[in-house]
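We now fix the convention by which a protein and its fold are recorded. The integers have meaning only within a learned vocabulary of local backbone shapes. A record is reproduced here so that you can trace the correspondence yourselves:
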Amino acid sequence: MISQNPLETILEIKGLVVAFDTDSGPVRAVDDVSFSLKAGQVLGIAGESGCGKSVTALSIIRLLPKPLARILQGTIKYHGQDLLTLPIEKMHGIRGKKISMIFQEPMTALNPVQSVGSQIREVYSLHFPEMTIYQKGKAAVGMLQKVGIPDPEKVMDKYPHQLSGGMRQRIMIAMALACEPDILIADEPTTALDVTVQAQIMDLIMELKERIHMSVILITHDLGVIAENCDEVVVMYAGRIAEQAGVIPLFKDPRHPYTKGLLASIPSKAQIAKTRLPTIRGNVPPLCDMPHGCRFADRCPLAELQCRKKIPKQRSSGRDRSAACHLLA
């Protein structure tokens, strides 16, 4: 692991644009996305399904589906080095070792015909070929112990279908953290898990974060998870960033109408019992037919004529926070 200063920016994304080729022509799933990640920080990326969260994450480690997806422009700098210009051979040395990822669905991410032990040992084979078979096995058992799996020696011989969802997710975490990366990207790490297991998984990620001093990008649509675990938040809508802020300022005083709508839809003690929760009217526009101006304009109760005609730029709305909204001008 590279030695890091607490306030050092270790990952910086600027002007990222990702397009997918479709029957209707290329569509931009991520459009002009920029944010940074500091050493030791937990950055949350929130938004509805299809807003570009996972595509942004896959762009960072260059695992976009080929040939359908293309990065059209932008930079992704890790410790000042643009990952998009690296030869793929060098990228192999960073992916999994320096920047690792926990994928949404552990059942599909894990190989169903390989044992748990062989899959974890493969991580060490790729990044530490000098290790002996015995050393790889010992390290794999040690990782399973670190993520709280009982009887790790027995689990090494099991296959993914023989384990519960929570156990599979812990194995994914073990594989992602085997090389003690600088950055962990956790893409919906608690999806399809019951509430108790969700809490255990998040506690585990945060505990391991502190233990190996890594930074975390936490992708989720669950604002409760964001509030409990993140330092900074990026709110995405329809492929663009709506708002960026520290977690406390964002929840106390959201600036973008979309963020306000998301927070208003969360049940709270202040709400009158048996009343309807506020909702955001309408639907997210399809990628092939995006509005010319603000992508949230058709659903925004405050939209003006300029919102429908002109794309809003990120505007500073306080210390270390910004929002893409004409109404902040």
User: Anything to note?
Assistant: The CA atoms of residues 54 and 240 lie 13 Å apart.
